[in-house]
Amino acid sequence: FGWGSVGEAFALRLLERGIKFAFAREVHGGVLRESTREKLKDSLEDNAREIDMAGEMIVIHALGKGMVDTDGVWGKVNVGIVFSETLEWSREELDELKNFDLLFAGSSWNKAVLEDKGREV
Q: Would you state the pLDDT for residue 1?
């Protein structure tokens, strides 16, 4: 589940607090549980419109090694959810992660790898 589980939990917390957000990429049907999909229904249906207004809101980005591409969507606040299965991160990739206001690691192993490389997660 990875990005879906972490992104789902984060999106639900934002929704509970009445905070507007958008996903940087389309959320595919199988990623979210049906109960969550129903709670996020309006946000998901509005996501394309929200992306046009993303500069004014929180944008949630699914990230991994070699996946720091934001699809041109950048928000007022940018949250990256990082999953990776490698120890090897280039200096450029680590520097790109500095552009995010907040990073969530997908696991304690991911967190340890990034912190070992000098990137706070």
A: 37
